[in-house]
Design a protein that fits this description.
Length: 146
């Protein structure tokens, strides 16, 4: 069971602190293993430490994953427990979650990291030279202000 903490605002109304709960239909990002970096859908809760995930649209096979291996996102889709892979794929594609995640700051950060990791030696050299050129331009403007 998960316990949600309540905080009381000035007018004494309780507000929920946590908004990302482990629930059927919650979209998660896999952090480790062969499917690291892929989005998946929680299909069922196996026990207090594992969930059953599936997402044919992103290439994640149906499997049980530990909570430590996933990060919950803000996105959910409406699914019944233990849905079939075809229904999961239809709901995932219809909701447009992959595009929404890619447009979020989290998705943009992951895309930036993977793009930087895939740079060739020459491209890294060009990045360094562009940084130097930018720094020179900024310093020149600062000297004008003094």
């Amino acid at each position: 069971t998960f316990v949600a903490r309540l905080h009381f605002s000035i007018d004494k109304t309780p507000t929920m602190v946590f908004t990302r709960f482990v629930e059927v239909g919650r979209i998660a990002l896999i952090n480790s293993g062969r499917d690291a970096g892929k989005l998946c859908v929680i299909i069922d809760v196996v026990d207090a430490a594992r969930v059953l995930v599936d997402c044919p649209s992103t290439g994640v096979p149906r499997q049980a994953l530990k909570f430590k291996a996933i990060s919950l996102t803000d996105f959910t889709i409406s699914l019944p427990r233990s849905s079939k892979s075809g229904n999961v794929a239809k709901a995932f594609d219809a909701s447009g979650v992959a595009e929404k995640f890619a447009a979020s700051s989290w998705g943009k950060t992951l895309a930036r990291r993977s793009r930087r990791a895939a740079l060739t030696d020459f491209e890294r050299f060009l990045v360094k030279k562009n940084k130097q050129q930018r720094a020179r331009a900024i310093n020149a403007q600062l000297k004008k202000l003094k």
